C-alpha cells in the first residue's frame, strides 16, 4: 500500500504535466517517497482548517515541482480536485509554481529558488518567539515544526545560504530540511557547477546533518526524520540521495528535469511502477490510506490542541486574550499618543521613524523585526533585547549583513501568522531584497520594509550608496505601497498605514538628513497618497509636486516664485500607490489637468511621467561629497528649481 500511495503521487504528477504539456516531472518522481513519509508519519495539519495556528508548516522550496505538492494536497483532502489537477498550469487553481492564497494547503509562493527555504527560516523564528511568549508548563499551545523540501538549485542560491547561516546561528531546532539530492540540474550534472561537501558545509553553518543514501528507502527516511526531530538545538538538513525522473527511461538525466515525459514514456512508467490505472485514476483504497495516515491523524491533533487551548483560556485568561489579539493582528493607532515624538521643528525622518517604532513596539507586543547590521543608521530596531537562542522573547532580530535573507525571512514570519514584522536597510540595498519584496506583493501579505538614506543626500558615501532608480523600480511593483514621507507627521502616518495594512506590503523610505516639519502635513493627506500641503494664495499659476525631503524644497521654492509673481501650490505625494486608489474627483482637485506641474525628486524621473512631463530629477548617478555640496552640484536648491519652473513652465 505504501508503494501504491507513493506511485499515486508520481503518476498524478506525470499525468498533469503531460496534459499541460509543461512542468517538471523529475522531482515529482524522485522525491515522492520522502514527501510521502513526511506527510503520513510526521506532518500535523487540518485540511478543514488550513490556517490552524499550531499546524506544522510544509514548504516546497523547489517550487518548480509543484505537482508533487498538488498531488499530495489532493490525496489528503485539501480543496484541490482532480479537475484542478487536469488544469495544471492553466488559469485556475493549480499554477505552475505554488502560490500562497491561490491553492489550498500552500504555505508560501515558492519557485524563485532559495526563497521558500528562507521563508521557512522566518516561520521557525516566529514559532520560537510565540512559544516563548505564550507557552506555560503543560500548556504548549505553540509547538510545531517547519519542514522543507528543497533541491540542489535551492542550495546554490545566495539567499538560501544567507538564511541557513542565520538559522544555524540562532539554533532553530524545529526547522527540518529534506534535501532532494539527485546530482542533476537543468543544464546537466550538478558537478558542472558545484563541488562542495554538503556535510562539512552545513555542519560548519551550525546545522545537524543526516545522510540517506537511498531515496526510496522509507525506513531510512523515517529514521532520519525522527533523528532530526530529536535534535532540538540545531536546525537539521537530511540529504536524501534520489534519482531524478525515477522509473522513466531517461531517469538520472537533465532531460527529465523541466519537460513533460510524454505519453509514450508515461506508459513505460506505468509498466515500470506496476500502475495499471488510466491517467488521473486513483483507487479508492489509496484515498482511504491517505485519509487515515494524514487527514484523520491531523484532525485528532487539532482536536487535542483545541481542548488544550480551552484549558489554557481557563488557566491563563489574560495570556489567552493577548494570544487572540496576536492572531487577529488588528491595530488601533491613536495619532495623539505620538505628539511628543513628532513635535520637533527639524529632524531626519529616519530618527522620527525610530521614535515612532519604539513607542509602537511598547504598545504592541507582536511587533518584531530588525535591520541588516544597520540599526544605528536605519533606527529600525525591535524592542526587548536581541533575539537569540537564549532569549527567544526578545524582539530585535540581528539579521547581519544579509539583506536578501532578511526580506524573505520577514515574509516567512508574516506568513506564519501572529506577528507584525519589519526589516530595515539602506535604501540602495533594496536591490538585494527586490525578489522578496516582489513576492510579498504577489502574496498580498503586509510585510514592512524600512529603508533609510534615500537620496544623493547620503553624501560622502557616494554613488554606490546613493539611490537613483530605486524609487521608480519599487513603485512599478503592483500591490506595493511605497511611502516616502516628507516630515515627522507623514512618517507617523506611514507607520500607521503600514501596521493597519492587511493585504499590501509597505516600503517606508526615509531621509538621512534633517528635514523641516511642514505646517499642514497630515495623516489624512498621507493616507490619500497626495494632497495640497501649501496652497496657492489667489490664482493657480502652477504646481510643485514632490515627495520626501523635496517637499520642503518645494515649499521654499514656492516662496521664491511668489516673490517673482507666480502663485503656485505645493502638493506632497508620499505614495503614488495610495493616490491611484482615490476617486477621479479627488485626483483632479489635487492635480488639475490644466495646471502646469513640475515634479521634484532627487531620483529617476520615470515614475512621475504619469502626472507631468516636467520633472526636476536625476538621470545620472550621484557623487561623493558632503550632502550640501552634492545637492548644490545637482542643483537641488530653491533658486535653481524656481528658475527651472519659470523657464520651462511659466
Question: What's this model, at a glance?
Answer:
By secondary structure, the protein is α/β, with parallel strands linked by helices.
Strand content: 5-15%
Strand order of the largest sheet: 1-2-3-7-6
What's the CATH H-level superfamily name of the largest domain? Answer: Thiamin diphosphate (ThDP)-binding fold, Pyr/PP domains
Number of domains: 3
Cα(first) to Cα(last) distance is 82 Å
Using the 3D structure, state the CATH architecture of the largest domain.
3-Layer(aba) Sandwich
Would you identify the regions where 5 or more consecutive residues have pLDDT less than 50? none
Protein structure class: alpha/beta
CATH topology of the largest domain: Rossmann fold
Instruction: Sum up the overall morphology in one term.
Output: elongated
Q: Largest sheet, described in full?
A: 5 strands, parallel
Task: Explain what the structure shows.
With 650 residues, this protein is of the alpha/beta class. It folds into three domains: 2-301, 3-Layer(aba) Sandwich (Rossmann fold); 335-516, Rossmann fold (3-Layer(aba) Sandwich); 523-648, Rossmann fold (3-Layer(aba) Sandwich). It contains 23 helices and 19 strands. The N and C termini lie far apart (82 Å). The strands form five sheets. It has a five-stranded parallel sheet with strand order 1-2-3-7-6, with helices on both faces. Helix 5 (115-134) packs parallel to helix 6 (158-170). Helix content is 42%, strand content 13%. The model has no long low-confidence stretch (mean pLDDT 98).
Amino acid at each position: 500500500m505504501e508503494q501504491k500511495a507513493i506511485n499515486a503521487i508520481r503518476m498524478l504528477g506525470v499525468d498533469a504535466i503531460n496534459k499541460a504539456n509543461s512542468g517538471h516531472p523529475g522531482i515529482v518522481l524522485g522525491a515522492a517517497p520522502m514527501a510521502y513519509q513526511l506527510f503520513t508519519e510526521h506532518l500535523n495539519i487540518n485540511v478543514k482548517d488550513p490556517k490552524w495556528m499550531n499546524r506544522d508548516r510544509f514548504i516546497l522550496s523547489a517550487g518548480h515541482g509543484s505537482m508533487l505538492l498538488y498531488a499530495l494536497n489532493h490525496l489528503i483532502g485539501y480543496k484541490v480536485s482532480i479537475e484542478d489537477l487536469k488544469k495544471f498550469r492553466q488559469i485556475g487553481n493549480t499554477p505552475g509554481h505554488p502560490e500562497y492564497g491561490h491553492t489550498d494547503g500552500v504555505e508560501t509562493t515558492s519557485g524563485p529558488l532559495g526563497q521558500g527555504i528562507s521563508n521557512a527560516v522566518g516561520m521557525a523564528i516566529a514559532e520560537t518567539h510565540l512559544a516563548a511568549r505564550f507557552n506555560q508548563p503543560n500548556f504548549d499551545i505553540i509547538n510545531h515544526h517547519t519542514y522543507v523540501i528543497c533541491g540542489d538549485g535551492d542550495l546554490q542560491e545566495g539567499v538560501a545560504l544567507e538564511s541557513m547561516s542565520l538559522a544555524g546561528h540562532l539554533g532553530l531546532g524545529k526547522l527540518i530540511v529534506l534535501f532532494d539530492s539527485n546530482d542533476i540540474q537543468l543544464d546537466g550534472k550538478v558537478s558542472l557547477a558545484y563541488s562542495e561537501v554538503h556535510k562539512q558545509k552545513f555542519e560548519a553553518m551550525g546545522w545537524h546533518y543526516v545522510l540517506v543514501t537511498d531515496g526510496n528507502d522509507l525506513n531510512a527516511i523515517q529514521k532520519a526524520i525522527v533523528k532530526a526531530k530529536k535534535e532540538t538545538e540545531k536546525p537539521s538538513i537530511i540529504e536524501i540521495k534520489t534519482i531524478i525522473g525515477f522509473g522513466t527511461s531517461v531517469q538520472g538525466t537533465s532531460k527529465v528535469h523541466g519537460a513533460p515525459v510524454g505519453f509514450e514514456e508515461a506508459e513505460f512508467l506505468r509498466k515500470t511502477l506496476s500502475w495499471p490505472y488510466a491517467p488521473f485514476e486513483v483507487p479508492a483504497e489509496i484515498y482511504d490510506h491517505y485519509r487515515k495516515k494524514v487527514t484523520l491523524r491531523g484532525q485528532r491533533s487539532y482536536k487535542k490542541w483545541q481542548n488544550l487551548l480551552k484549558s489554557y483560556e481557563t488557566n491563563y485568561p489574560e495570556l489567552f486574550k493577548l494570544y487572540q489579539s496576536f492572531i487577529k493582528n488588528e491595530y488601533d493607532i491613536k495619532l495623539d499618543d505620538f505628539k511628543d515624538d513628532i513635535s520637533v521643528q527639524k529632524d531626519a525622518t529616519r530618527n522620527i521613524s525610530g521614535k515612532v517604532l519604539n513607542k509602537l513596539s511598547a504598545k504592541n507586543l507582536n511587533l518584531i523585526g530588525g535591520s541588516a547590521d544597520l540599526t544605528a543608521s536605519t533606527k529600525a530596531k525591535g524592542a526587548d533585547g536581541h533575539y537569540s537562542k537564549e532569549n527567544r522573547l526578545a524582539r530585535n532580530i540581528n539579521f547581519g549583513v544579509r539583506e536578501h535573507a532578511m526580506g524573505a525571512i520577514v515574509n516567512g514570519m508574516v506568513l506564519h501568522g501572529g506577528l507584525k514584522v519589519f526589516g530595515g536597510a539602506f535604501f540602495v540595498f533594496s536591490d538585494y531584497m527586490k525578489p522578496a519584496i516582489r513576492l510579498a506583493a504577489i502574496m498580498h501579505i503586509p510585510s514592512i520594509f524600512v529603508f533609510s538614506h534615500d537620496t544623493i543626500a547620503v553624501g560622502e558615501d557616494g554613488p554606490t550608496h546613493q539611490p537613483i532608480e530605486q524609487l521608480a523600480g519599487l513603485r512599478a511593483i503592483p500591490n506595493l505601497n511605497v511611502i516616502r514621507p516628507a516630515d515627522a507627521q507623514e512618517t507617523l502616518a506611514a507607520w500607521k498605514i503600514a501596521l493597519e495594512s492587511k493585504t499590501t506590503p509597505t516600503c517606508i523610505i526615509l531621509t538621512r538628513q534633517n528635514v523641516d516639519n511642514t505646517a499642514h502635513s497630515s495623516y489624512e493627506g498621507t493616507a490619500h497618497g497626495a494632497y495640497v500641503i501649501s496652497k496657492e494664495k489667489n490664482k493657480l499659476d502652477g504646481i510643485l509636486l514632490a515627495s520626501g525631503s523635496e517637499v520642503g524644497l518645494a515649499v521654499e521654492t514656492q516662496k521664491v516664485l511668489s516673490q517673482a509673481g507666480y502663485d503656485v501650490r505645493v502638493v506632497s505625494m508620499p505614495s503614488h500607490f495610495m493616490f491611484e486608489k482615490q476617486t477621479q474627483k479627488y485626483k483632479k482637485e489635487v492635480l488639475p489637468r490644466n495646471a502646469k506641474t513640475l515634479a521634484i525628486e532627487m531620483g529617476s524621473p520615470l515614475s512621475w511621467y504619469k502626472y507631468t512631463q516636467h520633472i526636476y530629477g536625476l538621470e545620472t548617478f550621484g557623487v561623493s561629497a558632503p550632502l550640501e555640496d552634492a545637492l548644490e552640484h545637482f542643483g537641488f536648491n530653491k533658486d535653481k528649481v524656481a528658475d527651472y519652473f519659470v523657464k520651462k513652465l511659466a
